[in-house]
Design goal:
Length: 110
């Protein structure tokens, strides 16, 4: 039913907000480290997934190298994503420089 789908979507968004809350961490990271002049945050439903994208035009970083450094921000974000069944990846931004974080959470439709 449509009402059931709406309740499912609402529940998933609450799950994303409570367990992952990536916007806050991503924005904190880009303000702290990216040295960017522009960033974008987008949450949208794409087919059967929720897709959260955080992108900036900052200095960028080497993801593999960052995971081996002290600090737990990226590891924690990755673990929280996995805990709710989301996929997470980092890549070069579509801007001339910077980073693009993408989190994909499958939509549950019963």
């Amino acid at each position: 039913s449509t009402l059931g789908d709406i309740h499912n979507i609402r529940r998933q968004l609450l799950l994303l907000r409570r367990n992952l809350w990536p916007q806050r961490e991503a924005v904190n990271n880009l303000l702290r480290y990216a040295n960017c002049s522009h960033y974008e945050i987008e949450l949208r439903r794409l087919d059967k997934d929720w897709v959260l994208t955080v992108e900036d035009n900052g200095v960028g970083f080497d993801y593999a190298e960052a995971l081996n450094k002290p600090g737990h921000g990226l590891r924690n974000l990755q673990q929280r994503a996995q805990a709710i069944g989301a996929a997470i990846d980092w890549e070069a931004s579509r801007f001339s420089s910077g980073t693009r974080l993408r989190i994909v959470l499958p939509v549950e439709v019963n």
